[in-house]
TrEMBL record:
Extent of Basic and acidic residues compositional bias: 28-44
Organism expressing this protein natively: Streptomyces violaceorubidus
Domain of life: Bacteria
Protein name: Uncharacterized protein
Region (Disordered): 27-52
Length: 103
């Protein structure tokens, strides 16, 4: 990853993207696994996601990319509670790597 892409996940714009997507991820996780969500929320609010939560977030954001760049005729529409672009996914992954998580 180049410097510009690494900064993308760690600057103010990257932080806003991460905050927006973590909120959606935590809400979804709470519906399916309240214990994991509580552990992740505690880590998030304390400034350090546990490794399991970081991996779950990375996988979730990858699976939930909703803006694929395709038109309706070119590819599927992926429904989701928030708009997630491939760049958003890259931002979250860069943010996690900047905090020492293997993504």
């Amino acid at each position: 990853m180049n410097d510009k892409r690494m900064r993308q996940g760690t600057g103010p714009d990257g932080r806003r993207t991460v905050e927006r997507l973590v909120a959606a991820w935590l809400a979804e996780t709470e519906r399916h696994d309240p214990e994991a969500a509580a552990e992740a929320r505690e880590g998030w609010e304390g400034g350090a996601l546990p490794e399991r939560a970081a991996q779950d977030l990375a996988t979730w954001v990858t699976a939930r990319v909703t803006d694929t760049g395709f038109t309706e005729d070119e590819g599927p529409y992926v429904a989701g509670p928030v708009r997630i672009t491939p760049a958003d996914k890259d931002t979250v992954h860069a943010w996690l790597r900047a905090r020492g998580h293997a993504v």
